Amino acid sequence: MRQILLTNFQRKKVGRKSYHQLCPEIITELKNLLNTHSGSAQDRRRDDAIRFNGLSIVDCNKHIKKRLMKKYSIINKISNSTVRRYFLPPKNNIQSSKYYKSRILAKIPQKRNSQSIKEHNDFHFTCAMVNYVEELSSLYSDEILALSCDNKSKIPLGAPAVSRYVRSRKFHLVENQPNLPDHDFPRRGIRINPSAYVVLSNIRKRSSSVDNHPSCELKTKKRSRSCDIQLFPDIKQRTIMTTDKRNLEHVIWSRTGQLFIRPFGSGTDQSIKATSEVHINNIQQITTENNMIFHKSVITIISDNGPDWSTDCMANIYNLGRFWEEQKLDALVWVSYAPGHSRFNPIERMFSRLTDLLQGVVIDLDPSFKETSQQLDMALIELSKYWNNKTYCNYKIDCRPMFSVNGNIFDGHEKLKNLLMTKSQIQIEQNPNVQFSLQLYLRHCVRSTYYMSFIKCDDKYCVHCPRYPIRATKTMSLLRAGGGYIPWPTMTYSNKHYDTFLQRTFSILSGEKNLNPDEHLLSRSKVKCSKCKLPYVFLSKADKDRHNQWIHAPTTKLKRSSIQGNKIKKLDSLIYLDCVIKEMLCCSPPFTETYRTLTTDYYLPISGAKLFKGDQIFIPIYNLAIDTELWSVDPNQFYPKRFLDQD
């Protein structure tokens, strides 16, 4: 009955029939054509010498005329616009969209470059680990400073800073539109390398119904499979909690914050490049100037796993350990995504804003300066004018160039890297300071493929940790409960999903043993150092050999014997001097002179007066580094014998 009514009251169309009504095979033929020549379909083929990637309207029109002309002679008159209107309209919110039939779901696509080269086997694992670290940073935001770091693509000089093929989104007067050259001739070998750092804002929004607890204290209760609000009574669900598709709870962590840029010129010198030493110096300067670690003593860092951050480089481990020691941090945690997936790093989305600010801009060297380094400094100043004090997500961008006069910040990394790559026992013995510092850092280091952390120990004989009490008590309590590192991702309840951070945290606090780092990693076999107290995963056989040579080599055992007495005395003196200077700087006001006992007869260089062995003298602190014969050492006080005998 309904069909009869629709037939009776349906309005009869007047005029000639549409082409797809006269030739019903047009739609089918066009669909088959596009399916054959689409980009994704072509990628599945392996035997074609000629490749196709989409078709134009003219190609579609020619094809259907060639295939259907004999059967439908009227199709010879079909126009390109008629064929175009069988497809989707370019925009649905324009008036001309009503003329499109949309019988074929095809249109000119927007540019996309989000496809990874190939999903890495460890991608799922690294996503879970990054979420664990950042949820921890958000949970204890009053104790932890979260950073995201990366290098933006290098900016050429003498050519458009942004490719001329990228359409500008800015308005210009018609008579003053930018006109870029039809060919790019950038300065050969000279680029601007912007190093960028984001301080992720995990500060929670307060309301009148939320109490004034500074952060959440996870309480240990009986383990449960679920992680509802009853397990964490101090967590305010409205402010920091969210649920996923499986209805499991997560701690919300921020993907944005204040952006700091430190561009520098590269190409004039092979040693001037982005290294872990440069990044650490920049982070130290940023955190110190902005008082970021005045109340926070734990730092987490997200970055890519490139050569300037990779845990496979011993120099990177040394520089991160130096940063942990000099800043007196309770813990320093570094984590990264799997190779090929660095686009998930929060800082990556901020680079698009920097690109927009440089569209249509050409930065070149200023010929009024003779030196190339000076010309490059002026180019850095010009670049900073486009970025500095601009805003992103209501945060001001801080852009300060690194001038050539500060070139010494690039010195030392390659030398340190080459030194730590050596296996020569002679070179190791000639650098006792580096060896001692490296041993100190690795006694507090957890190292794996995509994770590295430095954490204070509870050893009262440690030369570093007892002098600086722990401030981040909640964070350190959780890390120590997990064996000195974060709860390690694992699949307990599902074979396709990792447990949430709250589930793993509650399991650790309930007494469950944490997994060893890289225990279930899919990409490589894992070998852990059996002599280190904290887990230290070897990434290669060469890495294992270097580690054993620097840290556990039998020939480097420092024992008090007649043969090695002079070497031990020299090493003890350097360590003692380092401790004395640090103690001097900790005093307020710092003292500048001290008493010492002569270890041998000595003549004063100015007056010629003779001093005898055992005399008490009063000398300036700065002379300790010069007159090493004027004082005796007490190595057991600053360098316990158990460290000398340790493997």
Short description:
With 647 residues, the chain is α+β, with helices and mostly antiparallel strands.
Number of strands: 19
Q: How many domains is the backbone divided into?
A: 3
Report the biggest beta sheet as strand number plus sense, adding barrel if it closes.
Answer: 9 strands, mixed
Estimate what percentage of residues fall within beta strands.
Answer: 5-15%
State the secondary-structure class.
alpha+beta
Mean pLDDT equals 77
Can you tell me the residue ranges where pLDDT is under 50 for at least 5 consecutive residues? Answer: 45-51, 206-215, 219-231, 555-572, 587-591, 628-647
Instruction: Determine the fraction of residues in helical runs and give it as a percent range.
Output: 25-40%
Number of helices: 21
**Radius of gyration from the CA trace?**
33 Å
InterPro entries: Cyt_P450, Cyt_P450_sf
Pfam family, one: p450
GO molecular function: heme binding; iron ion binding; monooxygenase activity; oxidoreductase activity, acting on paired donors, with incorporation or reduction of molecular oxygen
Family: Belongs to the cytochrome P450 family.
